[in-house]
Amino acid sequence: MSALRLTGAALGRLMREDKLSFLGLVILVLLILVGLLGPWLPLGDPTRIAAGPRLGPPSWAFPFGTDELGRSYLPRVVEGIRATFLLSIVAVSITAVIGSFFGMLAGYFRGMTDHLVARGADILFAFPAIIVGLLVAALMGPGQISAVAVISIATIPLFIRVVRSVTLSVAGRGFVTASEVAGATPWRVMIVHILPNIIGAVIVQLTYAMSIGMIIESTLSYLGLGVQPPQASLGSLLREGSAYLTIAPWLVLSAGIVLSLAIMSVNLVGDAIRDAIEPLKGRALS
């Protein structure tokens, strides 16, 4: 816990000094708040048909314009933010638990355990996310559960590789050896001694996996394999708007800009966390 408090203090200091990372944090917090509070904000009903003219341009009444059914696009984009963030967070959280567990197993026990886990991660890593999405959608059908499954499968190898590498370096330190000599069980060593020393790397990887998860979710929804109508995600809104790109480009621009801001903000926050944990390896502060 003391290491986490030190990391938190370093992160706060870095945010104050690094204006770009601070901007990313502000954008990320605003997007999450807007997505969570969207149903209670006075934005309108995202499913109300003929709320305005079909394919109407942005105006005071409809800041993001209207779609082909006359639905206000602003509440639909807010709904898309909530869906994209929620699915990515759920999937990456599941991945973090599973990937960290197997990564610690491989890094601590080594030998055959390390070989099996590493080869399994390599096999998963060899499959492109789109191919996995097609296979999962064929087995489970398109939808949110399929999107979560695909994101988890695609990001688990990344967690396993990172956690395994960090565990290998921590497992050889003196305090781990002293704990083993004192008779601590392998599970106690991993939970009490190794896990607190790798949690920083897990958090950094979590942020990067979050951005990857949003890209995968948006891609799946764009292809019709993720969130299904009438619900919206940023990817499905891009798919719907692409059909009217020449006559209503604001549909694609609004969803695309919001998605880009979300991914950029997550990556900037991830860079700040990395720099706080490894200041000598981080990028120069602006």
Automatic annotation (TrEMBL):
The chain crosses the membrane at residues 20-41, 85-109, 121-139, 145-163, 198-223, 243-264. CDD domains: TM_PBP2. Pfam families: BPD_transp_1 (PF00528). This is ABC transporter permease. Keywords: Cell membrane, Membrane, Transmembrane, Transmembrane helix, Transport. GO terms for cellular component: plasma membrane. PANTHER family: OLIGOPEPTIDE TRANSPORT SYSTEM PERMEASE PROTEIN APPC, PEPTIDE ABC TRANSPORTER PERMEASE PROTEIN. It is a multi-pass membrane protein. Its main location: membrane. PROSITE patterns: ABC_TM1.
